[in-house]
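Hey, quick one: can you model this chain's 3D structure?
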Amino acid sequence: MTYSIRKFLVINLLIWITLATTLTVIGNYILDQRDIEQHLDSLLGQSGLVFQALISDDFKTRDLTQIQKQFNEIPTIVRQMSRSGINKNINLEDKFQFQVWDAKGSLLVHSVNAPLAYLSNGVDGFANIKIDGRTWRSLTITDTDSNLQIIVGERSDSRVQLARSIARDDIFIMLLIYPLLGFMIWITIGRGLSPLNKIAYEVSNRDRSNLSIVDSTSVPIEVSALVDELNKLLSRLQSAFEREKRFAADAAHELRTPLAALKSQAQLALKLKDSQERKAALDKLISIADRSTHIVQQLLTLSRIVPEEAYTLTDISTFDMHRLTVDEITDVVPKAIEKKIEIELISPEHALALQGQMTSISILIRNLLDNAIRYSPPNSHIWVRLEEKKQSIVLQVADNGPGVPPAYRKRIFERFYRVLGNKAHGTGLGLAIVQQIADLHQATITLESTHPETETGFCITIEFPKMRFNKKN
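Sure thing. Here's the predicted structure for all 473 residues.
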């Protein structure tokens, strides 16, 4: 099942934004109620002090009926003020209510909407009073000069209503900007994902044979890992295709002559009537077939060895280098006996633990031994030496052959390269295989003559690091 990254991000971001906004509104509602209580208590206190200042000693001698009548006319005055331009949503007459009581407990005057019941607990200061099922927030101030009690109050539900109104406005604003927020998130995520679309377009529109790496110069950090892995995959594919092409070209190049020789030798054997000559021709035919088989085996080996970084190796294990070398020497002993060549192994008695790909190392040893036997004259000697160092194991193979002049030593690892004048049969692939296996194991190769004065004989030294690989590979 496929899904859209853009939709996933948009939906989840909106969900989290909604949750965060909801928690913010709830938190603001709780905090606003506290702030509103403090603010309105402050206004209530200021109003009480203003009323106290307006009351003088002759308040009792005034016509209280006339004063109350004036208070009752306040709603009419407010409505006139509203018509004259004051905001109609502001309720001036219901904000604060007040009462004035004398020492005998008589209500002298009060605001229009103030309750007639005593709006106080009898103690100066703030108090919450419940009258007719409604809670009031009141402030009581006693004027010591006139012995009058001024009570200023406000209904608590109006405060709650104010907090709810603020929360409602917050929610309204949130709902108003929500579609715009979703649209902007959609556009922003789309622009953020545009490098992926660009890479997909570049890959989908290139030629099928184009395995060049994808340009990662303008790729975001989050996508760079994906592009790097894609480029590594393309590089591996390019290398694999090149190896296949190289194998086909090498096989065609190297097998053309042996196949032609096989045909001509077979035709010659058919024409010969003398049994001895026919046998000699058939023996030659078998020799050519053996050489062709050797060429194919070397080509296949070379094509399977991937000249990439060492961590791409598989089947990494720790093995005994001494035991592996003994096994490979045992396998080539019959060839050495045919040429009367003696092979001497010089190695420590204990096991030599080496970490690497045992199959590849065995191919390397076999090619070194095969080359030494192939290029050594009859009745000669081959030395195989193993040495253990602190961080490495050294393999050395030396022979009494014609050797390789220093001028040619850099080229002997090239594919199909053979030193001029060399009459020994070979494909020119053995040391190329050795080079690739050594590179895969981060090993170093040193070439020198067995007899430096005459520059004869050949000695190759390979030093392998003991622990180079991660066992997880």
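One thing worth noting: The chain has three domains: 5-170, 221-304, 310-465.
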